[in-house]
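Researcher: Re-running this chain for the archive, since the previous output was lost when a drive failed. Same request as before.
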Amino acid sequence: MPDETAPIPKKDEPKKEAQHDKSDPGTDCDQRYKHEDLRIKRRQLRVQVASLIVAGLGFLFVVLSLNNNTRSLEATVQNNMLTHVTDLSKLLQENPWAYPYFYENKPVDPKDPHYQELLITAMHFADVLDIVTLQSSQYKNQWQKPDAWDRWTCDMLERSPILRQFLREHLGWYGDGIKDKFKLVDSKQKCK
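Model: Regenerated structure tokens:
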């Protein structure tokens, strides 16, 4: 039976059970969940920003490494070429009698007592010229004047009968660059 002494609520007055109580455990749980979710999202954002920074630094490191490797390659190519050319100069310095056979178009007689030495020296020149023609075409941007190497190769071929003779007999040992230049010189065409 209903309690007749209980006051009758007014229409405008909300029921006490319907009032929103801040001490309601469900509401506190929702706010804690939202707060924890926001904290996790902030942490994820910081991790993503840190990952982006690390990736950017990694990319910068790769670019700097490539630049350094390019300079190292340039130095290696130049050093390699100059070492070979210097070795040829030393060879002629130690044997000055051989100079005219390589720079002054002096013909060689197969009965000359230095004939074998001259052939071996011609082989050294051919080997270096082969390297020069290859590297001056593959690494053109490593040289201030890559065409100077081509001109030097042509000059050597034009000024040395023993070198041309050696190449004529052993052309299959060498690459296309020196072959092409030799064929131009051997056919009395302008070598470039």
